[in-house]
Amino acid sequence: MSDHSESLPVTVIGGYLGSGKTTLLNEILRSTDDRIAVIVNDFGDINIDASLIENQDGETLQLSNGCICCSLVEGFASAIATVLALEPFPDRLIIEASGVADPAQVAAYGQTPGLTLDSILVVVDAERIRTLSRDEFVGDTVLRQLAAADLVILNKTDLADPGTTSTTIDWLLTRATGAAVIAAEHGRVPHSIIFGDTGQTRTRLAPADTAAGPHSTVETFTTWSIAVSDQLTLDELHSLLDNQPDSVVRAKGLVLLEEDPGYETIVQVVGKRRNITRGSTRPAVPSPRLTFIATKLDC
Question: CA–CA distance from 222 to each of 109, 186, 298 (Å)?
């Protein structure tokens, strides 16, 4: 295993069959500047975009943009060991759960030494999700997936009328308690939302290549930053985060906590999940601040 000082952030993508997980994954891989490792059940099942594949070596796919996909044929432990031994080391890891898997169980592997669970994303079909949740055979599976989510991506909103989408968002907020919910078309979601890359200079963000007309249900986003005291306590940090608008879907920042003054503290928030971890040794963080991304439906 390679020796790396920082844990590899892990994103789990879950959601029922046909919701658009593969579409989302391909969108991420096509447009990323990051070196991403992906763990999937089987290459044939997820249909990685052929234009991305450079070559296949046993149970791995080498992609032309420096990303790599590993198969779960020999199990999670083997796949994770392969990822943690990669050189050059990846920037992040995505685990694509099967359509009937409980993402919370998959996310448990994000606690493996060398890994840090960043978020659980659950992709749902705007037209079908409420019907699926009532299905005698798959309803429990669908509701478990929603309960595990930090961020719900309401996909395929181009196929649903705005009224259905609005009603479904309200319904999702009661089933995925504490999760953020955003609407999307064709799996197009800004990387800043998926990975918490909040270092954006624009004040409004929109999914790439989406022609958002006057009746589009795809959300636009707004960002803002808050300068924080270099004498912040952990309780004050939690209070500050608690008092942000419900529309916040992501937050990130570097702060100094009174309880740990010799180190940076890294703050990552998505939905109900908060990761507050020790960062680099440093006597001070220049202008400690937190940056937030929120939906802005009235843009």
Answer: 33, 21, 11
Q: Is 11 a residue whose pLDDT tops 60?
A: yes
Q: What are the start and end residues of each CATH 3.40.50.300 domain in the chain?
A: 8-189
Task: Assign 191 to helix, strand or coil.
Answer: helix
Q: How would residue 246 be classed by pLDDT, with cut points 50, 70 and 90?
A: confident
Closest Cα partner for 122 from 137, 140, 102?
102
- pTM given for the model: 0.86
Average pLDDT over residues 275-290: 79
Residue range 223-296 forms a domain whose CATH class is alpha beta
CA dist 120 and 62 (Å) reads 25
Instruction: Quote the CA–CA distance of 36 and 92 in Å, as a whole number.
Output: 5
Strand order through the sheet with 36-40:
53-57, 60-63, 68-71, 36-40, 92-96, 8-14, 115-125, 151-155, 180-183
CATH superfamily of 8-189: P-loop containing nucleotide triphosphate hydrolases (3.40.50.300)
Report for 16-20, 65-69, 217-221, 283-287: range of highest mean pLDDT: 16-20
Length of the chain: 299
Span(s) in the chain for CATH 3.30.1220.10: 223-296
Secondary structure string (H, E, C) spanning 16-42: CCCCCHHHHHHHHHHHCCCCEEEEECC
Tokens of 118: 């960043």
